């Protein structure tokens, strides 16, 4: 390879919690997953560490990471040098030389060319991911990443050029696939329509991510989270200027074009069935003759979490409805009974349905006092074109 990556021995040396045996477990697992590419040892380390050494969580992240990158090449594919050169004149994305006291890496993003007509949302997402992946492969793991978005120069015209479909895919990728520990997303030089921007993207963010959003009306607010001295000169710190950092970042990116082609070669086999959960969104509806007053008020919330876990799906997309007092007869009697429907885009089938049924019957029979032989659960695997969301369909959002 014509580019240099972080040495894995250094990763093991700096992190006592990083187990070579756990990394081997992930490597052995990949051998049993024909739809996934054979990730490098460094990549497995990045996933395992970012998932706080949880092997099962790392498996899901690896599956999602390579699946999304393969199925969304316009967002996560290898950029051309012409595209990179152009996009680097529009926005600067710079990692600061020093970390926070907690060991968090800080990345500062700011528009250079503020003309809306030169802003390409998809290309900028691609640039951001390209720079982030290059950094991780060059520097290895870190305790976390903190972003600072300088909104100076952003106008309403930029907002009209946002691609919500691409942003949705990016946020899924960041939350469910990318080997990142996000510790804070800070915004400075706030624009008047920030609330409108957030209203557009928050539906695609899990609560864990929205809790990391910060909006500062002054630099003093930022200093409480990121030490002033490690910030660039423009923000009152001792670090080199944004202009200097951007020049260094551009040089590093353009000298490593082979890296982006190499990373893009790790493709998921789209013809092989996958356990990826990129396209799933469930709705679980229960109707029962049990009086509503006897149904625990928090049952829908608990079922939401159970459904999300069973389908390995974001909780923010799960919907549960529990309807009591239904005029229902089962076998000629009005003894407690129920019928339910679990609708999802994918993740339903002969074997998965057995697992879902076992989990759902256990909680419903216990909480509603219903015998297992007095309830049906109908599993409905819906095509993306037949499920609407956010003013369109999932077919339109995912392009499939």
From TrEMBL:
It holds the Pfam family MIF. GO terms for cellular component: extracellular space. Gene3D superfamilies: Alpha-tocopherol transfer, CRAL-TRIO lipid binding domain, Macrophage Migration Inhibitory Factor. InterPro entries: CRAL-TRIO_dom, CRAL-TRIO_dom_sf, CRAL/TRIO_N_dom_sf, Macrophage_inhib_fac, Tautomerase/MIF_sf. It comes from the Eukaryota. Residues 77-243 form the CRAL-TRIO domain. GO terms for molecular function: cytokine activity; phenylpyruvate tautomerase activity. PANTHER family: ALPHA-TOCOPHEROL TRANSFER PROTEIN-RELATED, CRAL-TRIO DOMAIN-CONTAINING PROTEIN. Belongs to the MIF family. This is CRAL-TRIO domain-containing protein. It comes from Tribolium castaneum. The lineage of its organism: Eukaryota, Metazoa, Ecdysozoa, Arthropoda, Hexapoda. The gene is AUGUSTUS-3.0.2_15450.
């Amino acid at each position: 390879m014509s580019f240099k990556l972080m040495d894995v021995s250094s990763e093991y040396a700096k992190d006592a919690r990083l187990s070579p045996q756990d990394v081997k477990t992930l490597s052995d697992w990949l051998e049993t997953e024909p739809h996934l590419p054979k990730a490098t040892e460094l990549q497995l380390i990045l996933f395992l560490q970012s998932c706080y050494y949880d092997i099962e969580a790392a498996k899901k992240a690896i599956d999602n990471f390579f699946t999304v990158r393969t199925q969304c090449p316009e967002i996560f594919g290898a950029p051309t040098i012409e595209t990179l050169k152009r996009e680097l004149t529009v926005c600067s994305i710079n990692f600061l030389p020093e970390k926070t006291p907690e060991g968090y890496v800080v990345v500062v993003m700011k528009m250079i060319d503020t003309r809306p007509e030169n802003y390409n949302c998809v290309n900028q997402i691609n640039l951001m991911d390209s720079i982030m992946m290059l950094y991780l492969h060059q520097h290895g793991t870190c305790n976390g990443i903190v972003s600072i978005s300088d909104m100076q120069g952003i106008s309403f015209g930029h907002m009209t050029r946002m691609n919500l479909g691409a942003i949705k895919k990016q946020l899924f990728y960041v939350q469910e696939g990318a080997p990142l520990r996000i510790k804070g997303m800070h915004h400075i030089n706030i624009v008047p329509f920030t609330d409108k921007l957030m209203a557009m993207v928050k539906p695609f963010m899990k609560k864990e991510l929205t809790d990391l959003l910060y909006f500062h009306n002054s630099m003093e607010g930022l200093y409480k989270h990121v030490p002033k001295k490690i910030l660039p000169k423009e923000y009152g710190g001792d670090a080199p200027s944004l202009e200097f950092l951007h020049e260094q970042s551009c040089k590093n990116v353009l000298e490593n074009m082979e890296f982006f082609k190499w990373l893009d070669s790790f493709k998921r086999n789209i013809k092989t069935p996958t356990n990826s959960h990129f396209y799933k969104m469930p709705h679980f509806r229960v109707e029962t003759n049990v009086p509503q007053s006897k149904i625990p008020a928090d049952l829908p919330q608990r079922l939401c979490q159970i459904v999300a876990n069973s389908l390995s799906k974001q909780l923010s997309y799960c919907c549960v409805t529990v309807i009591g007092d239904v005029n229902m007869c089962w076998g000629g009697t009005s003894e407690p009974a129920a019928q339910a429907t679990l609708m999802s885009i994918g993740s339903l089938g002969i074997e998965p349905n057995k697992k879902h049924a076992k989990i759902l019957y256990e909680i419903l029979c216990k909480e509603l006092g219903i015998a297992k032989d007095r309830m049906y659960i109908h599993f409905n695997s819906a095509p993306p074109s037949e499920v609407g969301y956010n003013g369109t369909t999932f077919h339109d959002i995912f392009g499939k």
